[in-house]
Amino acid sequence: MSSPDLDFVTPGEYLALERKAAFRSEYIAGHIFAMSGASHRHNLIAGNVFGLLWTQMRGRGCQAYTNDMRVKVSPTGMYTYPGIVGVCEEPRFEDAHADTLLNPQVIVEVLSESTEAYDRGEKFAHYRRLDSLREYVLVAQDKIHVEHYAREGEQWILSEISDANGILHLGSIDCHIGLAAIYEKVEFVAS
């Protein structure tokens, strides 16, 4: 995440600017943060996850969205663009533009060096305030490793998978994703 624009912006001003902008930005506490581009590996992983979810959701009334679907965390006022979003309930949008989802059930973020701390910390703290959110998934791009946070009551339970033969089960949207498929065509740099 980049440095914020120093001027305070209202949510309405942000949305008006964002809907005309050539590049995506997030909004937190009255400030706009430009988003950076993603690497080749990041795009492969995100595309694989989206494709796997989309395929399993076909014909079930569920929907998967890629990183162009803005999500509003209503309790905190944050607007953000998760890597992948899944919802099996009727999607609710902020307004008639239908470009700002209010009720994600699953959010998947592909970690990068520049966003990992933010995705694990402040961003997840905002996401946890969403009543609809049931699962939060962090996918490493430098090795085979997935962290899966599942809400159980008021607690978030962490499970990790580092085995290429492992399966990620997203119970809230009834999807099973093999790690080998998540990392298909991804080449890792030997260290």
Considering the protein shown, what is the CATH homologous superfamily? tt1808, chain A
Helix and strand composition category: alpha+beta
Number of DSSP strand runs: 13
CATH domain topology: tt1808, chain A
One letter per element, helices H and strands E, the order comes to HEEHEEEEEEHHEEEEEH
Rg over CA atoms: 16 Å
> What assembly state would you assign to the polypeptide chains in this entry?
single chain
CATH hierarchy, class: Alpha Beta
The rounded distance between the terminal residues' Cα atoms is: 26 Å
Provide mean pLDDT, rounded.
Answer: 93
Percent of residues in beta strands? 25-35%
CATH architecture: Alpha-Beta Complex
Number of helices: 5
Strand ordering within the main sheet: 3-6-8-9-10-11
How much helix, percentage-wise, in residues? Answer: 10-25%
Tell me the domain tally. 1
Task: Give the structure's gist in a few sentences.
This protein has 191 residues and is α+β, with helices and mostly antiparallel strands.
Looking at this protein, list some descriptive labels.
191 residues; alpha+beta; tt1808, chain A; six-stranded mixed β-sheet; three-stranded mixed β-sheet; 5 helices; globular; disordered N terminus
